[in-house]
Amino acid sequence: MSFLRAEWRKLAIANYAIEKEQNTSIDFTELASLISSQKTEYRKRFVIHSNDSFFHLPVTDIALFYSTQGITFAVTFEKREYPVNFSLESLKEQLHPDNFFKINRQFIVSINAIKRVHSYFNGKLKLEIEPSHAEDIIVGKDKASTFKRWIDK
To answer: By CB count within 10 A, which of 30, 42, 98, 131 is most buried?
Structure first.
């Protein structure tokens, strides 16, 4: 999302420079409106490579992403795991924020995968998800209030 906004800002600045060189008046209200009205396109699918072939995996089939030892995996609701060539930080920008939340440095979880949220130690939250994951998925106390607002939308 911020990548696309940055690109739109660059375009707006370039257009501003052109207008300034041509000595025409600039309507800053219109320029601000153009920048803010651009809708962000979020990823709808991932291409998954498998041996000598590939297929597409719809984002709606993904329950969570997790990262371990520098490799990021997409986990489907059917418990299938596929490596993806993106970091969690990059995925966070590509996924619709209404549907996915970056829990911590290891996990991004779909709203549809969350079955229950438990209070945990020191203001942290522990997620119960489906499909279950081998590691506990813990929301830190610094993100707990943001997570609660997100899940309540």
So the answer is: 42
The 3-state DSSP class for residue 145 equals helix
Residue 67 · residue 110 · CB < 8 Å: no
Domains and CATH numbers, the chain: 2-37 (no CATH), 45-151 (2.40.50.1020)
Angle in degrees, CA 152, 43, 68, rounded to 5: 80
Model confidence pLDDT, tens digit, residues 17-43: 666 666 566 677 776 766 666 678 899
**Mean pLDDT, range 120-124, rounded to an integer:** 92
Phi, psi of 116 (to 5 degrees): -160, 150
Query: Where do runs of H (alpha helix) occur along 22-101?
Result: 28-37, 88-94
Whether pTM exceeds 0.70: yes
Which tokens is 69 given? 């030892």
| DSSP-based helix, strand, coil % in the chain, nearest 5 | 35, 35, 30
